[in-house]
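Researcher: I'm preparing a figure for a lab meeting and need a structural model of a single chain. I don't have an experimental structure, so a prediction will have to do for now. The sequence is pasted below. Please return the structure as tokens so I can convert it later.
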Amino acid sequence: MMVEWTCELDETGVVQLAQLLALKLRRGDVIALRGEVGAGKTTLARALITALMGEVAAEVPSPTFSLAQTYATPRLAVTHFDFYRLSSAEEAREVGFDEAIADGAAIVEWPDRIAELLPESRCEIELAQGCKGETRRLTVRGLGTGSQPVARIGELLAFLAQERWCGARIAYLQGDASTRSYARLFAAHGTAILMDAPIVPDGPPIRQGKSYSRIARLAENMVRPFAAIGAALRNAGLSAPAVEAFDLDKGILLIEDLGDRLFTSEVAAGTSQSELWRTAVDALVKLRSVPRPSSLPLPDGGAYALPRRDRAAFEIEIELMLDWYWPALKGGPPSPQVRAEFMDLWSPVIARLLALPAGWFLRDYHSPNLMWLPERQGVARVGILDFQDALAEHFAFDLVSLLQDARTSVPPALESELFDRYCAQTAVGERAFDRTAFAAAYADFGTQRNTRLLGLWLRLLKRDGKPQYVQNIPRTWGYLERNLRAPALAALAAWYDRHFPPQLRNYKLPE
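Model: Understood. Here is the structure written out token by token.
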């Protein structure tokens, strides 16, 4: 498979293209640069390496005489090759071409000298003199698995060319466990965040021709709900990023930059966790008063309706425990009898969850997605970043996400204190509020959520090659154990104790 597109760019545009390439570059990738002497190959290579290094003024010498220059960038090692003086492909092996691809990524000038060594999947960029003086005409090709990122880079470049951020410097931002990614744009008039959310399902079809994301009611076109829900939150006085520009069909947004003060980094820096979480609880109390209309307007004139989960959605989430956690800890899949018993025990719990009244459920309301904005007032001090998977579900669900944070430990005493705060404040505004029923919903959902997460952490490791999430397993078990103390969950608690005694409640990465 091959994707090809052409463009004519000045030097600023060439640098911006390089910065977009840097966003997509992964281990094993090869960027082959073609063109005559003076066509701009080295300019593009230097801009790409500088973007990867994250330093605008980084020194990037030409490898014309050394043939190869390797850079240990924060995300991956990248080697810049110049094979102009090469007499045979074997010489490329001698200077470490094969090892460079195995250990990181490679940028290759004069790739025709080593044509037989180039992988089938790669990106090729051919540079030539443009029609307008200082411009360059570029033909960009993606071959094999390189076709998808090349096509996406073309869409992003075209999108930025139409906006006031054309020519802005693009810097990589750490993403999350999903398929979307982010970058920060720097221009004379300020900064913005580029949200790159291609419309793809979360994995292959696994049941009745549907992917996991579709069954679990996860947004596959993330930017539509993000734009619609964000507007509703801002109209209610909560802090969600404003949308500056969009291409909803292609999954691209330019959004307001709320800064870098994530709750996770604030706690690490010594900011009071109690103050942060208390303000976030108050924002959830405020959310209860926000009307949830049947449909929300979109900036392109369309509308979006919050979905609600059905039984299949809850089941596919808890089955992650059996499909990923069980095999990783026990060496093989559970028996049909074990699976049937597990699902039977969950059946009445899911029935209770389905019977709960619907409110706002932002779904990922926890520390990696919450920003501290102390310059604002009241609940607006909490910047809410991730809500495109929101559902019409019970209000207790977001409180669980916050007080049983998957990435940052919340001590039991603080969880209890803030649960009481939420209930007390809600009862003031809602005379019919039933604390006992709310606590039961909280325990049911906490059990379901943390069961899902245990499976998710292993799926991210085994399927997606993301080992960093395994460190969350002990914390997740701690939360799950808290929830399983609820009397209505005694049978489920006994199942966990029988099949996952304490020695099976953690997973260690192989040495």
